[in-house]
């Protein structure tokens, strides 16, 4: 069984006011000057003769006119700049495009914080719109059930696509499960975790699930075949490697699946992260399930055990456990 999830970290440090220094909460922005910058100082009080220079002879008027001209020139220049800014702003509003337009995602401006996947308040995928793959169901499309709807039994399979024990289970038991689905022995409900992303860092578990969602949108057979290819001994990485975080690697693996090899919509969905919000919703559903490790397999709601109560890791052990459970029912 793969280890449980890492407990969440501590609370982030509080945000400091932009005008306060750390450790000095009383400091604030500097007080405004007595007079706005750029204005000439106030003249001195009148002199005994009523002149502006305290009774001294008035200086030549030429420097005064020059200073006045400089002030007027500055004011004119400021007005010209203001005019340019106004014109630029008008042009932006009239069709040049605003900054908000540039960062707006399919579901609204980034960081809008809505419950539909925008702003990522619940790990649903940032500002992207939640798109659910075809052949999914349930809340937010996170239920993936493959097999005959009227099957008498349901196999629940909990996996982390980046998890080596899950890959070993897929390699040993996956073909038997695919045959049982075909025969109608049971239907399979798939659940996906991102335990390694959380414990080791990286995004391979979630990114591979997003690509698997793109395969599910093509067909359930493409989903099963692509999942088998991702978990194969040929393509599955070591737990210390985050190969599945690379879209190019995921697309290379997809060449093993005939239905995906030349499928342009699948490739575009992987490149664009179309199903990233869906993958995060699926991971959140696993986190709420109460299952603490992967792989975990349950038949009709009860853990499935092989001989001696161990987890079935071979097709023979798995089939024996399934047949015994069905017989007992």
TrEMBL record:
Q: Where is the composition biased (Pro residues)?
A: 1-11, 27-49
Gly residues biased stretches: 108-126
Give me the stretches of Low complexity compositional bias.
95-107
Database matches in Pfam families: Thioredoxin_4
Domain (Thioredoxin-like fold): residue spans on this chain: 141-304
Which parts of this chain are annotated as the region Disordered? 1-64, 92-142
- Output this protein's name: Thioredoxin-like fold domain-containing protein
């Amino acid at each position: 069984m793969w280890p449980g999830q890492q407990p969440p970290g501590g609370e982030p440090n509080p945000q400091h006011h932009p005008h306060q220094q750390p450790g000095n909460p009383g400091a604030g922005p500097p007080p405004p000057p007595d007079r706005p910058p750029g204005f000439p100082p106030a003249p001195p009080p009148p002199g005994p003769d009523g002149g502006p220079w305290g009774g001294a002879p008035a200086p030549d008027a030429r420097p005064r006119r020059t200073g006045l001209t400089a002030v007027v020139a500055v004011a004119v220049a400021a007005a010209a700049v203001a005019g340019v800014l106004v014109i630029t702003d008008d042009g932006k509003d009239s069709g040049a495009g605003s900054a908000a337009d540039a960062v707006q995602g399919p579901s609204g401006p980034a960081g809008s914080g809505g419950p539909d996947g925008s702003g990522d308040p619940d790990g649903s995928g940032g500002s992207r719109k939640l798109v659910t793959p075809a052949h999914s169901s349930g809340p937010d499309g996170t239920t993936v059930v493959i097999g005959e709807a009227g099957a008498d039994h349901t196999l629940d399979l909990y996996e982390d696509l980046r998890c080596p024990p899950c890959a070993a289970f897929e390699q040993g038991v996956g073909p038997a499960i695919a045959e049982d689905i075909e025969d109608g022995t049971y239907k399979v409900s798939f659940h996906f975790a991102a335990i390694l992303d959380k414990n080791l860092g990286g995004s391979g578990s979630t990114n591979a699930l997003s690509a698997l969602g793109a395969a599910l949108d093509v067909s359930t057979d493409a989903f099963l075949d692509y999942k088998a290819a991702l978990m194969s001994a040929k393509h599955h990485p070591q737990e210390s490697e985050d190969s599945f975080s690379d879209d190019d690697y995921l697309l290379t693996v997809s060449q093993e699946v005939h239905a995906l090899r030349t499928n342009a919509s699948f490739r575009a969905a992987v490149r664009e992260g179309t199903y990233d919000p869906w993958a995060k919703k699926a991971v959140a559903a696993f986190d709420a399930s109460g299952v603490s490790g992967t792989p975990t397999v349950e038949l009709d709601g009860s853990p499935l055990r092989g001989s001696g109560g161990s987890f079935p890791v071979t097709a023979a052990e798995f089939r024996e456990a399934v047949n015994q459970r069905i017989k007992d029912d």
